[in-house]
Design brief:
The protein is of the alpha/beta class. The chain folds into two domains: 187 residues, Glycogen Phosphorylase B (Rossmann fold); 196 residues, 3-Layer(aba) Sandwich (Rossmann fold). It is 48% helix and 16% strand. α3 packs parallel to α4, α9 runs parallel beside α10 and α9 packs across α15. The chain is globular. The protein starts with a strand and ends in a 20-residue tail after the last helix.
Amino acid sequence: MKTVMIVAGESSGELYGSLLAHTLRAMWPEVRLVGMGGERMRDAGVELFSGISSSLGLTETLSSIKKLRESFTKASRILREIAPEIVVLIDYPDFNFRIAKIAKRHGVKVLYYVSPQVWAWRKGRVKTMGEIADRVAVILPFEEEIYKKAGIPCEFVGHPVMEEIDALEKTNAQEVEHLRPGSGIHTPTVSLLPGSRPHELKTLFPVFTDFVERFTHEFPGVRFLVPLAQNVEVDQFKESISALEGKGVVFMRGDALKALVSSDMAVIASGTATLQAALLGTPLVVVYRVSPLTYFIGKSVLDVTHISLVNIIAGKEVVPELIQHEATAKNIVAQSRKILYDDKYRESMISSFRQIRELFSGKQPSRRVAEMIGEMAGWEYEKAGAVSPNNSQRRNA
């Protein structure tokens, strides 16, 4: 039986894994998929041996060590007992590099999908990738050259969020146009995306609450949307959610793309959602906070000028970044005011978004990665045509 293991450790990677799983099953209906992920991967037909983690950073990860050890033990057992033909490792390097070594020990081929940020820190991981991965599929255009220079088989396949956006725009074209600002019936709308990890929500919910209060006072009638990621445990944040709902904020489960496309602007925790907003043409402010220790250590080891994907891809500051002590409600209001009322500034930002979108247009990452799996395993497949995710897969991380 054709068998593939897919390992995703966090919300965005789990989304990519679900899109890939759906495509694999469309190309090879008989394929067996096992892996680590969340409900989207399960819904796409993956037999899960472990759930995704919500941790990130140096101090935030400590509470998840036990869960990670259990997941590693289960993954090792499956590699030994089931012996999948290919293991697809999606980002999450500290965990997945160890899984890759176990896979190689058992003769299982490794396709690494979504590179760790070797361009930002720990550049020695490029060499490690060459030792553990048979092939690498990257989702940012500048990453391909990094691996090719090191002699590692690598291909830029495009970004899965573009895949979701294409699906939304093609199958719901009228709805999308109806939602977009300027449709004639639109209420001024701001989307707030606090991230998917507990520490992100814990630190940003109070900031967002203060921002909503200040912004509403200055701009009465504005509507606020919060599309929570699927893996967020709502019960942990009942108090913060109630406080925001008390100020008229509307919470959604998933559907971040629809929230973003209907918004005049967004305030987003640094991560994949910033790129989603840019690809949709929604102006944004990037915010981020971590523990003081994580920030101190991170600042000393990171080799980047910007932290948001939008600015990193553009190679310049396209969107404002409010990091750590600068991520205050007062500063967010000031940046939001500039986006909404400085037409030249807003149009310049949107123009840069169009240039970024061109880099990803026409790519079909899930289809291409599925083809790479088939090539590595020696499976035949139909090369013509494309496989699109079904509606149940069009959810945002």
